[in-house]
Design goal:
The chain is mainly alpha-helical. Helix content is 39%, strand content 0%.
Length: 143
């Protein structure tokens, strides 16, 4: 974001980034590179810069034992052919990651067919997933 007109060189510019990594140590590496590249570019063009880091997101890491247990329950409930393990990985941002840092847990998906992911404007939730999800939660609770 810089200036109000395309033909005027602004005095300031703001660049906002969102970094997502699959490991905490990779996050530190990426943040270090962002800082060193920013410093080098500022020096090369004779400008000043300021980096403000927001609260870092947590990397979501599933507990292997919890994941296996929940997958076994799903296989028993839905059938072996209906459970994909390991499931897909994504670079999404998920608050559950903060909980998983304190208590063992697992984050899983209930398939939604061939549709864009949540938060995409074309996402279309398949209501037929509601009884499947509810049944899985009941089975986990009963287990």
């Amino acid at each position: 974001m810089a200036g109000d007109a395309s033909n005027v060189i602004p005095q300031t510019a703001t660049l906002r980034l969102s970094t997502r990594t699959s490991k905490p140590e990779t996050r530190q590496l990426v943040l270090g590179k962002i800082k060193s590249i920013t410093a080098a570019q500022a020096q090369a063009f004779g400008v000043s810069y300021e980096i403000r880091e927001g609260s870092p997101g947590a990397v979501l890491v599933n507990d292997p034992a919890q994941t296996e247990e929940c997958a076994a329950i799903a296989k028993e409930l839905l059938g072996e052919d209906q459970v994909v393990i390991p499931g897909p990985t994504f670079m999404g941002s998920e608050d559950f990651a903060f909980y998983a840092q304190h208590k063992p847990g697992t984050y899983c998906f209930i398939g939604n067919g061939d549709t864009p992911m949540v938060h995409h404007p074309m996402y279309d939730f398949d209501d037929r997933n509601l009884p499947i999800g509810a049944a899985h939660w009941v089975a986990i609770t009963q287990h």
